Structures are given as C-alpha cells and as structure tokens.
Amino acid sequence: MITWSSFPLFALLSLMLWLAGALSALMRSAGGRRLALWLTAAGVVVYAVFVGGLWHSLQRPPLRTLGETRLWYTLFMMLSGLVVYARWRYRWILLCSLLVGTVFMCINVFSPDTHDRSLMPALQSAWFVPHVTVYMFSYSIFGCAFLLSVAGLWQRTGRFLPSTDRLMLTGYCFLTAGMLSGCIWAKQAWGNFWTWDAKETWAAACWCACLVYVHLRRPALQHPATATHDKAYVHPYAWVIIAFALLQMCWYGVSFLPSAAASMHNYAY
Q1: Is 268 helix (H, G, I), strand (E, B) or coil?
Q2: Which residue from 169, 152, 142 is spatially nearest to 230, judged by alpha carbons?
Q3: Contact, 223 vs 150, CB < 8 A?
Q4: Which of 13, 130, 152, 197 is surrounded by the most beta carbons within 10 Å?
Q5: pTM of the prediction?
Q6: CA nearest neighbour of 267 among 113, 101, 51
C-alpha cells in the first residue's frame, strides 16, 4: 500500500527522470527532444502513481492539507512544463519547472503534514475534487507564464509574449472554472455563494489581475504574430509577475494573516 512514508522514494525516482529529461531538453538534437519528452512524461506517471496510491490508502482525495495541495502543484507544474516544451520548444522550461517542483517536494519531505482519513462534512461534496484540482492546474499554468515572463525580462525581449499570452488566457479560463465550481460548492456547504472572507477576497484579487492582463493583451491574443515583435514587453511581463504574487498570497500566504483565522478555507494540518 502506498502511504505518505513512500513519498521520498517516489519523489526521488520522479526527480531523477525529470532531471534527465530537463538535461536532454538542453540538447539541440531531435533525439534529445524526444528523450526529454519521454523521460519527463515517465516522471509525471511515477508521481501520479504516488498521488493515486495515496488517494486509495487514505480513502479520500489527498487535497485536505496544504502539503497535499503541494503534491498536486508539483504534478501539474511538471505536466504544464511538458506541454509548454512540447508546444514551443523552450529548452530551459523543463529545468525551471523542475526547480519549482523540487522546492515543493523538499518542503513535503522535510516538513510533512499529518494525514488522516477523515473529511469534514463540507468537504464531502462532489465539487471538492474538481474545484481544488482545477485551481491547482491553473496555478501551474500561471507558474509557466511566470517563468517565461522572468526570462523575457532577463533577456529583454518580447519573443516570449505569444506563449505567455496563451498561457495566461488558458490559466484564466481554468481559474474561472475553479472559482465557479467553488461558488456552487460553497452554496451547498455553507448556504452562500460568496462571503468575502480572507481567502475569497484574495482569490478575487488574483482573478481580477488575470482578467486585466487578458483584457490589455486582447489585440495581441487576436493577432499573435504582432506580439512577438512587441517592444512594450516590460508591462505585460510585470503584470504576470504581479498576478503570480497575488496567486501565492491566495494559495498559502493568506494563512499568515490575522483575518484568516475566521476563514472557512483554511487547510487542515
């Protein structure tokens, strides 16, 4: 049976496959690109096996604690990085995605959560799994957009803008779906679609930041070729970084605010 004690083994095996894939992606040959895709995909499968096995052993979705959400974020971060590499062939994206995923894996290894099988009644809803997983997937997409924005600012180029625009639009759609499913879940669990507690307020701020980006970049989204040569690249990249910072605040930063004590969205520990 796969339990939390098995995580270091699965994490190490996944890390080795992902690192080999990231290094293969740095090769300029077609064989290196194919190897990078297969190795990274194999790492995703190994990691997904652990998540699925933990789900089975806990007899509930592993989404109850903050550490369990980090499991999903690492999985989706590498999956999103794989998709970005397969689509746009940025040779460094797998390595950068791996660095982000490794941070969350190390946190879970050295500071594991306490797990049990119980779920509070509010979490025993059909909307629980889609709400949280869709959110985590959108966070991973925004993570890739953040990496591209940092690279664009570092290299002082607008050539990453078309990819960033597509990622932000896709992430915004998933974020909206996650928010809507959360509203339905909240109505069933607590009787209100929205209560403006600390978590919901920061979620709204994150959603609005992404909406502003999509609105400002609408001409480029309609004509992607013009974005490649956009000389005003600093503003959109900076806006992505701001939106990503708001996302981090919404995910776990809000837990450090005094107002979060009364929130119904605190993760169990």
Answers
A1: strand
A2: 152
A3: no
A4: 152
A5: 0.92
A6: 113
